[in-house]
Backbone:
């Protein structure tokens, strides 16, 4: 009897869903399955893909009001079937370039250009964009590399955003702290460590909202190589870049490069000064404590003599 009841329920559900088959599917229809999916599926070349989408987190993201097919342009009302019309040429070209990096749906990653054309134009001309689009490199960053999964992207002012002021260093460090990346592209893998040791980095760690992060000096979507004459950190351009916070910055001022590797003498001098500073404070603290102890001792002795 229960089997027949279950079959009848499935039949009724299918009749309810049939009229919606020709309509644009909304996120709720897709999440009916994807929110409950567990585990991963294996795609081409043995790549494991997690198809679960956290419905609550998605609803709170900047894309929470979107329909899934706004980005997943390769799908229509009938799940996982191609659209009747071809994907826009610009999106398809970018999708082809992103295919080595996309585990699931390169068209969905490329669909960012539909709503964000200006950042895309800047990215396309950047050192990151040229690495992916022109050089076909699989280790170049794309939108999701910095912003995270499109399902859970938070607005930049949010503390949960990967590009929030105090999170940018960690986000950039995912690539720029990797030794194999530094050796391949010719930059120091200690670049983030050197930044955090600098005045700017220490100011950021103290929670100062006016402290410059990576993007403050290098830019974001349109970031260029430091060797590019158009880069804000190239030669004479540094005076203008530093001048945004330090009006009238001179050549001597901008020569103090934030990421410059420490010379051994400077390194050990810094360590010695740190030890000296800590030792001085410890000496003062111990001296004050001994003085307090001596004062208490003398008071107790005087009190004892008075009663005697």
Residues:
């Amino acid at each position: 009897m229960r089997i027949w009841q279950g079959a009848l329920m499935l039949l009724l559900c299918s009749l309810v869903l049939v009229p919606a088959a020709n309509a644009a599917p909304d996120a709720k229809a897709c999440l009916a399955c994807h929110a409950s999916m567990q585990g991963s599926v294996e795609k081409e070349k043995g790549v494991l893909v997690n198809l679960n989408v956290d419905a609550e987190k998605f609803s709170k993201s900047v894309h929470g009001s979107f329909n899934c097919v706004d980005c997943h342009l390769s799908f229509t009302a009938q799940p996982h079937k191609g659209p009747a019309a071809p994907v826009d040429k610009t999106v398809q070209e970018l999708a082809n370039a992103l295919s080595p990096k996309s585990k699931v749906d390169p068209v969905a990653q490329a669909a960012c250009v539909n709503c964000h054309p200006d950042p895309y134009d800047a990215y396309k001309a950047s050192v990151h964009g040229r690495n992916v689009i022109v050089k076909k490199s699989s280790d170049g960053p794309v939108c999701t590399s910095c912003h995270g999964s499109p399902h859970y992207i938070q607005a930049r002012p949010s503390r949960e955003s990967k590009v929030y002021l105090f999170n940018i260093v960690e986000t950039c460090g995912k690539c720029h702290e990797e030794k194999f990346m530094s050796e391949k592209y010719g930059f120091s893998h200690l670049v983030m460590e050197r930044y955090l040791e600098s005045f700017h980095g220490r100011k950021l760690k103290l929670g100062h909202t006016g402290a410059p992060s990576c993007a403050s000096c290098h830019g974001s979507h349109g970031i260029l190589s430091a060797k590019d004459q158009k880069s804000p950190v190239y030669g004479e351009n540094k005076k203008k870049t530093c001048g945004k916070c330090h009006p009238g910055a001179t050549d001597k001022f901008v020569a103090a490069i934030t990421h410059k590797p420490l010379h051994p003498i400077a390194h050990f001098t810094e360590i010695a000064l740190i030890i000296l500073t800590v030792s001085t404070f410890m000496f003062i603290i111990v001296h004050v404590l001994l003085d307090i102890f001596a004062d208490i001792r003398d008071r107790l002795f005087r009190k004892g003599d008075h009663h005697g």
